[in-house]
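Aim 2, interim progress: modelling of the coenzyme A-bound target.
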Amino acid sequence: MDLERCRSEDVDAVTDFLAAVDLTLSGLDAPTVRLWIERDPAGAVTGSTGYELSADGRHALIRSVAVRPEARSRGRGSDLARFALSRAAEEGASRAWLFSRRSGPFWQRLGFAPAERDELAAALADTHQVRLFRNTGQLEREVAWTRALTPADAETPSQNVAASSTDGDGSSGGNLSAARSVSSDSASLRARPTACATARG
Ligand SMILES: CC(C)(COP(=O)(O)OP(=O)(O)OC[C@H]1O[C@@H](n2cnc3c(N)ncnc32)[C@H](O)[C@@H]1OP(=O)(O)O)[C@@H](O)C(=O)NCCC(=O)NCCS
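Predicted structure of the complex, ligand included:
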């Protein structure tokens, strides 16, 4: 199954998809939010993954990692998470962070450890998710996680993550180590070189 960079015309569908799994909807169409989706042959969104970078580019807030309920527990979520980690590392981020109240064990298996939510909020103060959580008071109820992030360790040898070296949006130029393909029992993820348009404000 291919991953596509989320385009402006995908935003409504991905909003419905993320709302159904109770994930944050803010900033889905913002140029600073990197978001990929996968669809089934009928066009329904079946998975998503992404991140948002800090202003200095050193920190990545992993977000919008979701798999439709019928397709869970087959490694897809881990593949999607690793894809985002790999891309964030390729963009130059050295640390990944995320909020997750319900899926801590999933993230721990991917190398994340508990973090101070205030440290996350300081490192990623300008991101849509942190601003939303601050404004709504949700920040105080969130659970933060973090892990070091480098191109070498963001990619786990048991996975097969293939990506184009030309995203078309200027966010990930150059040769991507994410394009390295390694053997895997799980299905591969390929990112199509689609442009990320941002028609909505
Ligand atoms: C979290 C999520 C992406 C995992 O997708 P997945 O395809 O099931 O992931 P994998 O198959 O790679 O890994 C599944 C394993 O992760 C762990 N796991 C996943 N979610 C978990 C949770 N909420 N609590 C505890 N363990 C969890 C389990 O060990 C699970 O193995 P099991 O199914 O045999 O019990 C999926 O459950 C989902 O979309 N949840 C709703 C959205 C969400 O909460 N996203 C994370 C915040 S960004």
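Residues 21, 23, 63, 65-67, 72-78, 100, 102-103, 105-106 surround coenzyme A (CB under 6 Å). The chain has one domain: 2-192.
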